[in-house]
Amino acid sequence: MKIDLSGKTALATGSTKGIGLAAAKGLAEAGADIILHGRNPDEVADLARTLGARGTAVQLDTAERGA
């Protein structure tokens, strides 16, 4: 089954390792623009470069309500 997410934006937390990384890559392959999040900002930035125009790196603390 082929899913087309063109024109959609997805948030992938934990996107530098494991399930989060696989999800980010799968979403990008399906055409979504991805907002990438992870604990290591350098790894997130590297992934954004790898995904090209599809990936945007953000740094935020998901444990902090005001972030």
Automatic annotation (TrEMBL):
Entry keywords, A to Z: Oxidoreductase
Annotated signal sequence is: none
Q: Which GO terms describe its molecular function?
A: oxidoreductase activity
Q: Does the keyword Oxidoreductase apply?
A: yes
Report if keyword Mitochondrion is assigned. no
The entry sums up its family as follows: Belongs to the short-chain dehydrogenases/reductases (SDR) family.
Q: What is this protein called?
A: SDR family NAD(P)-dependent oxidoreductase
